Amino acid sequence: MTRHSLLTIVLSTLVCSLMERASAVFGDGQLRLLSLNGSSSLDDSSISTGRLEIFHAGKWGSVCDDFFDFNDARVACRQLGFAGAERIYSAALDGHKWSGTGPIWLDDVACQGTETSLLSCMGMMRHWGDNNCGHDEDVALQCTSTDSAEGDVRLLGGKRPSFGCVQIFHNYQWGTVCSAQWDQASAAVLCRQLGYGGVKQYMVPKLEATQMLVENASLLYTGKVWLEELSCSGSEKRLAECVTQWGTQRCAHSNDVIAWCDIDPPSNCKYPAVVFFSSCQARRLGVRVCIDVPIR
Predict the structure, then answer these.
(1) How much is the pTM?
(2) What does the radius of gyration of the chain's CA atoms come to, in whole angstroms?
(3) Which of 180, 239, 265, 269 is most enclosed, with most CB atoms within 10 A?
(4) Alpha-carbon gap, residue 86 to 223, rounded angstroms
């Protein structure tokens, strides 16, 4: 046996040993989120945003974004120990900063949204490593400790909680609201649902809003435009009660609504009161609101 052959055998044995050891630590199908600085959610449980990677055949590999939707994201985030998914990133649409290296293990993921792991969805997608993707299509996720419910609303991207891009949760996905039929009554329902006392400005022009939005606010205007057909009287408790049709045929993200809610009730309020609610920052806040009947 030549020295070269002996070295090849030793290296092969070492590689196999390392793969077996890694497989013993990480099970086939285990997931992790890899942050931009290379930290793994397996080592730091506070990491909730990162490139999605799955373990197979002794190696970590990425997941392609082809057909990857919020059903898939919710399954992945739950498998990672979170309550739900907040956002899906694609390397190609986000400056390639989420692009990985190594194998691309999964493509055409097709979960129903109720599965407990991505492996449970394997019957609906390609086999391991069978893909037509590059790393510019690697999926990254932002997971959340709270799972959103149908019809939930939020103001996103503002430097203050009461201001931002109006979004509504529908069909397991956050989407924006078109300005076509948005009015004062619509904003009143939105702000009431969020726990605010009134409306400061029902629609803020984007040029005026720029100074009050976070630096990466342009990333807000992506995904679905869920609402175009709205008909609010102003008395509804939830914005979803005003919906006549989900989705849009005419609106683009250039027409997304930015609104500003008011912590205080209107000056003509007959029955002001103070209610408490938990904000996105998990702080308990007291807010003055206007109610329909006096508190006895």
Answers:
(1) 0.59
(2) 24
(3) 239
(4) 12
Query: Mean per-residue pLDDT for 151-161?
Result: 87
For 245, the enclosing helix (H) or strand (E) is strand 243-246
Q: What is the pLDDT of residue 55?
A: 95
**Pairing relation of β-strands 224-230 and 173-177?**
parallel
User: Which amino acid would we find at residue 264?
Assistant: D
Residue in the structure block whose two tokens are 């009287």? 233
| β-strands 284-290, 31-34 pairing | unpaired
Highest mean pLDDT among 222-226, 267-271, 287-291 belongs to 222-226
| CA angle 250–227–166, rounded 5-degree value | 115
CA atoms within 13 A on the CB side of 165: 27
Residue 201's closest CA among 261, 154, 157, 159? 261
CA distance 293 to 27: 59
Coil, strand or helix at 174: strand
